[in-house]
Specification:
The complex is a heterodimer of chains A (483) and B (297). Chain A has 483 residues and is of the alpha/beta class. Chain A contains 18 helices and 16 strands. In chain A, helix 14 links the parallel strand 7 and strand 8. Chain B has ten helices and 16 strands. In chain B, a hairpin with a 2-residue loop joins strand 1 and strand 2. The chains are: A alpha/beta (483), B alpha/beta (297). Chains A and B meet through strand 5 and helix 13 of A and helix 2, strand 7, strand 14, helix 9 and helix 10 of B.
Chain lengths: 483, 297
């Protein structure tokens, strides 16, 4: 018995006349008061209509645009044919976490950006379809544990349970290795649980993915800090044959302006961790408090800034402004997130940057002094460099400032691991093809190597490293660079 | 049944059973917890983050001692808010959900010569491992311990055992010298002791006063800071403090710092960031206490 409905759609037409299907979502007025997920996802009949917009290119450009090279026309065709479960299985051949990627990938910069349909109209909603298939499989209890290769007897330790670590763990477990994930926090998922809010990525979905990885026989050990509780060398002494480091970008940057240590100034990491991981939105039922803010300024223009701003709004702030030193065009945040934030009433202040944060006598923020900026010549990143306009100082009244200007590499583990090389920003040096570090038997991937980036890039790196680890522990390729 | 349970936690190095839990003084507790991995690694000056159960806070507590063979660590803590009040009610044999560590850099210890270890109030439990490590490194350790009143003096026997000399003060004169620990430090200077190093752990006003004094005599002074933290691994920056004009994260750059460089004003203000909400948490808890106790027993 198949649980999927038997739909017999017509074959996709060459020139689709059907527009890109919108995804139903909570109205802005409703959702700004709750933490529930914003888009509801496609119902099956809409998913099929959207899937039929794909013209099944012979040389699909979308696949090349995907960091993990999902067979995009393949999984979409199965949706169009109504075999949703098969579509999900197809996705999982290349992507262990499709329900997550369907929600948080920047598709508009990857697969959808190069979609042929997007040349004349709007591209096929690949991300929404990915989410649909993955959700269908999970909600219908169709997630199957794939057949695992016979046990190899090799033990592999994964440091960090974020997207990179979960991917490596999933692949290696399927290939018959004994895998243990060590996580510093008390919950598994890394940035997926402490960083990305519930309204964008429900924690139940992350938990389902973690449960899936665990169902492959992966052991998950929370609340152990590698570099403190145990070192990398301890892991080898414990009998691990290889170690993968996927500790992420966990060192918040601050601006370095006066007043940054006033009460009411938070790193986005702290603010989001309090709300997401520690559930401060349930205070006092949950023990961890979070500032009760009235007027909030969020500094930065990325997804994390959007997440922090929208969290502040949901926690009851009257007014939330995102203050960004460049203009809308240069914002690194996903368009969809910016759109959602604006719909919810978040104000965007462009070409503005603080010079100092001003406090009251009790040591609390009362305002931010800012300068207006204009765009000058392109800088190293290719974006036009923001230049301050002298004499334009003005104050923004606020009681909370959330700094979301990026994260560096957390030095804790590299500092505790002799022989592990890092670059001048503190990122672990790893081979771009394999993830091999300067320490024999140790791989690294994700944000700890490339700096704060995306979930999907971390997964891509994890996938490469998993293959290399597999070859190494089985003696197929034990070569090591720079030895 | 009990046997099975014992086997389970013996096998599992990550279950944190409370082995013993005693009241040292009103609202001050002494807890031994199973944490074999941490017991093996911990050094003087390091701390753990404890999370009692689902929905609990992550609270930083200095490790006061432990036994690497038995696999236990000792935590001496004071009821300061809702979480520590709730922890005070936990019984031997119960489990803490998470104990993470050892975190922070160990206290730098070498043979300094004559070392003064000052503990104020609950800080006495935190200075104890430092005094022990200093003695082990061949230093002459003079300990100064103080509290508001006699019944708040804690772990005196442990400190005495590791010290060449132990001086005690109480603010109200109910035991030992009538006055502050800094007065006793002054007495040491006045009697001509050459002091090579001072370690001070206690309430912020006490550490600040000690630093103001030792600055006059140019005695290098380390303080151990205990700000608000969340993750304890450098990820959130809640614990930032200004030292020598630079922002430092106490959880990874500390918790020990050169006391002469610490901005104690800022630290004091940051410690009070959640004062109103902390009160609210206590009120809520007292109202719902019976329910909560049922749910976690």
């Amino acid at each position: 018995m198949s649980a999927t409905p038997s739909l017999k759609p017509d074959l996709p037409a060459k020139t689709p006349k059907v527009p890109r299907q919108p995804m139903p979502e909570q109205s802005p007025d409703e959702r700004r008061h709750n933490f529930r997920e914003v888009p509801y996802g496609y119902p099956p009949e809409i998913a099929v209509v959207e899937a039929m917009r794909c013209i099944q290119c012979k040389k699909p450009r979308c696949v090349a645009g995907c960091p993990v090279e999902i067979d995009i026309p393949g999984f979409i065709k199965l949706i169009a044919e109504g075999d949703f479960a098969a579509s999900a299985r197809k996705l999982k051949e290349a992507n262990a976490l499709p329900a997550i990627c369907g929600r948080v990938c920047p598709q508009e910069d990857q697969c959808e950006k190069v979609c042929v349909i997007g040349i004349k109209g709007e591209p096929v909603a690949i991300g929404r379809l990915e989410r649909f298939a993955a959700d269908w499989e999970r909600e219908h209890g169709l997630v199957e544990v794939p057949e695992l290769a016979p046990a190899t007897g090799k033990k592999i330790a994964i440091v960090g349970s974020g997207p990179a670590g979960l991917t490596v763990a999933g692949d290696l477990a399927k290939w018959g290795h004994s895998v243990t994930i060590f996580e510093a926090l008390h919950k598994t998922g890394g940035v997926l649980v402490y960083g990305i809010p519930e309204f964008r990525l429900p924690k139940a979905i992350v938990q389902a993915e973690v449960d899936y990885i665990a169902s492959l026989g992966v052991k998950v050990v929370p609340s152990v800090v590698i570099g403190r509780t145990m070192t990398i060398d301890d892991l080898f002494e414990e009998g691990f044959d290889a170690v993968f480091i996927g500790t992420g970008a966990g060192l918040p940057y601050f601006l370095g302006v006066p007043g940054e240590n006033l009460n009411g100034v938070f790193s986005a990491n702290e603010y989001l961790t309090r709300s997401n991981l520690m559930r401060a939105f349930e205070f006092p039922r949950a023990d961890t408090p979070i500032a009760r803010s009235r007027r909030v300024c969020v500094l930065g223009g990325g997804n994390v800034a959007m997440d922090a701003a929208r969290t502040a709004l949901r926690l009851g702030a009257e007014k939330v402004a995102v203050v960004y030193r460049r203009s809308r065009t240069e914002m690194p945040a996903r368009i969809e997130e910016i759109h959602h934030a604006e719909e919810e009433g978040i104000e965007l202040q462009f070409l503005t940057n603080p010079t100092k944060i001003l406090g009251n006598d009790d040591g609390w923020v009362r305002a931010m002094e800012c300068l207006r900026y204009e765009l000058g010549e392109p800088d190293a990143s290719g974006r036009r460099k923001p230049v301050p306009i002298p004499g334009t100082e003005f104050e923004i009244e606020c009681d909370t400032v959330i700094v979301a200007i990026g994260n560096g590499a957390n030095p804790l583990l590299p500092a505790a691991t002799p022989g592990l090389k890092t670059n001048r920003w503190g990122n672990i040096t790893a081979d771009a093809e394999t993830g091999k570090t300067s320490h024999r038997g140790v791989w690294a991937g994700g944000d700890i190597v490339i700096g704060a980036a995306t979930v999907i890039l971390a997964m891509g790196a994890g996938r490469q490293a998993a293959r290399s680890i597999h070859n190494y522990v089985l003696g197929i390729d034990t070569s090591w660079p720079s030895e | 049944m009990a046997g099975t349970e014992e086997q389970v936690w013996n096998r599992n190095e990550l279950m944190h059973r409370i082995v013993s839990h005693k009241l040292l003084a009103p609202a001050a507790h002494d807890m031994m917890v199973d944490a074999p991995l941490i017991a093996r690694k911990r050094k003087a000056g390091q701390f753990v983050i404890v999370r009692m159960r689902e929905l609990s806070e992550r609270i930083p507590l200095t490790i006061a001692g432990g036994d690497p063979i038995a696999g236990t660590i000792r935590l001496i803590y004071q009821e300061a808010g809702k979480s520590t009040m709730e922890m005070g009610l936990m019984k031997e044999g119960e489990f803490l959900s998470d104990v993470v560590g050892p975190l922070g850099k160990p206290t730098h210890i070498e043979k300094f010569g004559t070392v003064v270890c000052m503990g104020g109030g609950i800080g006495t439990g935190e200075i104890l491992p430092v005094a022990q490590a200093c003695a082990l490194a061949g230093n002459r350790v003079i300990s100064i311990v103080g509290a508001r009143t006699k019944e708040l003096l804690i772990v005196l026997d442990d400190v005495r055992e590791t010290s060449a000399e132990l001086l005690i003060s109480t603010d109200d004169g109910s035991f030992g010298f009538h006055g502050f620990v800094t007065n006793l430090l002054q007495q040491l200077v006045d009697r001509g002791e050459k002091l090579d190093k001072v370690f001070a752990v206690g309430p912020v006003p006490m550490m600040r006063a000690a630093c103001n004094m030792t600055r006059k005599y140019s005695i290098p002074t380390e303080v151990s800071l205990n700000p608000i933290m969340v993750d304890g691994t450098g990820m959130c920056g809640a614990c930032r403090v200004t030292v020598g004009g630079r922002t430092q994260f106490v959880c990874v750059d500390g918790p020990d710092f050169d006391g002469h460089q610490v901005d104690f004003d800022e630290l004091t203000k940051r410690l009070q960031a959640y004062r109103t909400l902390e009160k609210e948490a206590i009120e809520y808890w007292e109202k719902h206490r019976c329910l909560l106790e049922e749910s976690h027993s």
